[in-house]
Amino acid sequence: MSIRHSRQDFLGDKSQEVLASSRIGIVGLCGGGSHVAQQLAHTGVGNIVAADFDHVEDPNLNRMVGSCPGDARLRRPKPHVIRDLILRINPEARVEIAGRWQESGDLLRTCDIVIGCVDSFTARDELEKFCRRFMIPYIDIGMDVHCVANGFGISGQVALSMPGGHCLWCNGILTTERLKQEQQNYGAAGGKPQVIWPNGVLASIAVGHAVSLLLPWNSDLPLPSLIQYDGNRHITRPGARLQFLKDVPCPHYSGEGEIGDPFFSVTSLNFDPTAC
Length: 276
Ligand SMILES: [Zn+2]
Fold this sequence. Notes:
alpha/beta, Rossmann fold, 8 strands, globular
């Protein structure tokens, strides 16, 4: 245990080795993903796949940790800015950068955990499907600002989608209506309201989930598949739907036929059968 990480040695004797050899993918590197990247770097996660196809612009600067006006002026790709952020904190980290995650499946499929910080429901659906196929724990965060009586409401959630566990459909994050509505609004001008502090809360929970999966520091550690966030009262609690999901298996991912690489070919392996 290095002196640098001595304050987190309760995670276990070999915890830094585990973290240093872990590989975590972050998809979406702005408000939520930048917080996640920063925390994973401080924690000592050694291998990070940073995926985002976008570049930094002025409207990102209110919430993208590690970004500065010069990044926006130069329109730097977000993964480059996040790579710099991670390496400033942990020069020993290995950061692999990707644009569109859909075109970087080879990088993501070998991750131990994927954390999704994406805006759209369609992207969540696709990313969860991908993770289920390769049996990768998927942690999803999202926040929203909406009109309520007397002003605005900030809300959000963190979902943990484990292979064999409840999924984003079970937890009500994904619904047919939401996907349909999103498709109808596709191309609408303007971004959704976003601010830094709810992203920080949700990202912190996501990182806590990830470390809990890698290094459970307590055998009674609860990892609810849905945590809801009330950003007006600054409260987090297990999702209300969880009581109805108890003892009900996920009906959306049956397993067989949805697992593994449909394009896998044994000839792609670097394997010489004559050597046996
Ligand atoms: Zn489900």
